[in-house]
Amino acid sequence: MLKKNTKNKEKNERLENRLDLHLSMTVREIFEEIDCEMARPKNMNYFDNFFKNFATKEKNIINNPNKKKIIGYFCMSVPEELIYAADAIPVRLCAGSADSAEIGESYFPEVSCPMVKSAVGFASTSVLGIYQQCDLVIIPATCDWKIKLAEILKEFIPVAILDIPRVKNCENSKQFWFNEIVKLKKIIEKNTKKKITKKRLLNAINLIHHAQYEFKRLQKIRKSNIHTISGRDAGAVINAYFYDNAESWTQAMKNLNDELEQRIKEKVSIVPNSSPRVLLTGSPFVFPNWKIPNLIESSGGALVCDEICTSNRYLNDMVAIDEKSMVDLINAVADRYLQPCSCPVFSNNDDRKNKLLNMINEYNIEGVIYHVFKGCHPYDTELRSIEKMLADRGISQLKIETDYNPEDKEQLRTRIEAFLETLKGRRYSK
Amino acid sequence: MNIGRLRFFVQLFFFMFLIYGGLYSLKIGSSLPTFACRYNDYRGGICALYSFQVLLGFPLKTLFTSYFMGFAITILIFGFWAFLFNKAWCGWVCPMGFIQDILSGIRNFLGISAVKFSESRRKKLSCVKFIVLLLLIMIPILISNSFFGLPTLPKELAIPYCNICPAKTAAPMLTGNFEEVKVFGNAGIGIDFKSIIKISLSTLSVIIFSLFIVGSFFKKRFFCTFCPMSALLTLFEKIGLIKLKKDGSKCTHCNNCAKACPLDIQEIATERTKTNMVTSDCTLCMKCIEDCPENNALKATICGKTVFKSSAKGFIKRQIKKNKTKK
Ligand code: SF4
Ligand code: SF4
Ligand code: SF4
Ligand code: SF4
User: Fold this and answer.
1) DSSP H or E run through A199
2) What torsion, rounded to 10 degrees, do the Cα atoms A12, A14, A19, A22 define?
3) Distance between CA atoms of residues A282 and A387, nearest Å
4) Measured between alpha carbons, how far is A328 from A202 in angstroms, rounded to an integer?
5) Of A266, A326, A376, B139, which is the most buried if we count CB atoms within 10 A?
6) Structure confidence by residue, pLDDT tens digits, A236-275
7) A277 vs A283: CA distance, rounded Å
8) pLDDT digits over A327-378, tens only?
9) Is B27 helix (H, G, I), strand (E, B) or coil?
């Protein structure tokens, strides 16, 4: 018995060491490539640091000098406001590492979401400290993978499931969701031993409104026909929000936005203005899986906009305070995290279609790239109706089905290049 | 200045004007599409419902001969005002609307959260105002005209709506005149049939007035849901010069607008295709525009010109400001 345990331990250690090594290599490779890029905004440095720490030995990704409680969560349906109001640190745990997905593989069927595999990979090893440092992990029951993920993660970290109604716009769902959020508030209060008072909640809402102000500024900057920032970097700054404190993030965003606005004035573009303007939608991309945005941009596309839950969709919707009683505030917070969400797990999802069309219009999009994880059923299924909608309107589109594995990179590059060529061709034929 | 503030001051101005304006001989006409109550001696104008009820009380024969000019002018003036400001009369002018807003303000100050009507309940309740409007038109006609040889209605029912209108109690009260507050009317001991009508009407009026006060304390714009003036103004929702417009393609269904709407109009959030959002309950208060975070999803226009529109930037600025204020 004892022998077996030590054997397991040894095996685990070997596994961890290997993951540690591979992760560090992946991160270094990414930044080696980035270092060769010309004219990258200087203020990206701040955000890069979070990701560079993935490669260091200690991997201190989040900054927690005051030893506050850390509350992890998945998806974008968990109100960060409540976590901030309880004086805890929210960390979004959605993971993007192909190396850790390999470790998580044994927990899931063969074809399944790489995101949950990667998360289990991290949570079951101690390579990336934040997973095991969490005092609580909140997992919304958005898709089937997430709900099973919750069951698996229970083995390693304390988990609370947040049930979410999937038919958004009906009285019963609203009531149900409101009750769930009230319940969540109590869970968080119990875990942090801090009461979420009205004042604290208002301060938290304020904190996030400020962050969203800068986020909206960036969105506006990206509408310009001068490409001041790559789509990958725009995604990266939001990815950095997973790990950063909202206040410091806001300040860093302010600096970045100032720099970008200056660039627009000076007409500094990082890619030729003639690059086809592309919108990316579908399954999320999380560091270090910057495969798809990197491919689009290195093939000569301008990724000016995305409709992705780890990027643009994440910070887009805002809490609206009307009256300030606790019930009204909780209701406002609850609404913000359910009603406008365009995740494909909801039905009916006209909101997403509507949003895509509006984005295509506002960002002058020439082609849409639809990214699906192998095994991601909601995005995959919804693809059909969106394909049809785009085809009806004569908008070019490309579907990419992949996972975190870098092996299919070159094959995808060929397809993306061809797609971008047709976009250019279309432009001339117009 | 933010639009909520502006609205408050405009409302305050018209409140003073319509309730006390007469003291300084300020008058703006006798058929206003708003509750400038005729029973208030210091009024600065007269409510159109009163004029309509009086005129409809004349036998139809005379109405279409000798009184025709008067009748036509009343309708024209009413139409003109309603065409000009549409439902903004309710959100920006009506003194009764203002009183309701003040009561809601007090409730909010006390930290009590508002009662809301669910969409289905609101839809049901808001039919009441059309029924009231119909009665308000039919009863005066049936008093002075007999159809198919049926007996006419008793004269005590003349100007029926005014007898139960909460403004008839409230407006004189605000000028220190408490005469209209009469439980069981002025009836003495010997109740005869005629005074039974009077008794019922005055009792009903006190009940309605109390409901008005209690209701609008707990529910924003409670009375407006049932108001016959609002029903009448509905005729102008398509043609009025001031409009509330929605661009469904920009809306994310976030529900912020419906949450802010004092009338609990869900449609403002759920509507995707219709552009004119001045619905029968709307008061054009524009709170929905203030709370909409999407650029250009909602806007108010005058003669087609945009005067106020929703924007992400404006939304966040207003929210941050609201967050700072005490209440
Ligand atoms: S009682 Fe009501 S309806 Fe009659 S004049 Fe006064 S405000 Fe108008
Ligand atoms: S609906 Fe309200 S605001 Fe409009 S006239 Fe009636 S009471 Fe006044
Ligand atoms: S729909 Fe808008 S303008 Fe109309 S009453 Fe509601 S909040 Fe006011
Ligand atoms: S607030 Fe604006 S975006 Fe939200 S539901 Fe209303 S109209 Fe749509």
Assistant:
1) helix A198-223
2) -170
3) 12
4) 11
5) A376
6) 999 999 999 999 999 999 999 999 999 999 998 888 888 9
7) 20
8) 999 999 999 999 999 999 999 889 999 999 999 999 999 999 999 999 999 9
9) coil
pLDDT in tens, A169-202: 888 999 999 999 999 999 999 999 999 999 999 9
Nearest CA to A405 among A21, A14, A22, A11? A22
Radius of gyration of chain B (CA): 21
Structure token pair of residue A126? 């101690």
DSSP assignment string, B100-142? HHHHHHHHHHTTPPPP---HHHHHHHTTHHHHHHHHHHHHHHH
Do A103 and A168 form a contact (C-beta atoms < 8 A)?
no
The dihedral over CA atoms of A105, A108, A109, A111, expressed in degrees to the nearest 10, equals: -60
Interface of B to A at Cβ within 8 Å reads 108, 111-114, 118-120, 248-256, 259-260, 269-270, 272, 287, 291, 293, 312-313, 315-316, 319-320, 322-324, 327
| pTM higher than the cut 0.95 | no
The domain segmentation of chain A, as residue ranges, is: 5-429
To which H or E segment does residue A250 belong?
Answer: helix A246-266
Cβ-contact A339, B255 below 8 angstroms: yes
- Residues from chain B contacting residue A330 (CB–CB below 8 Å): none
- Which residue of A321, A323, A336 is in closest CB contact with B113? A323
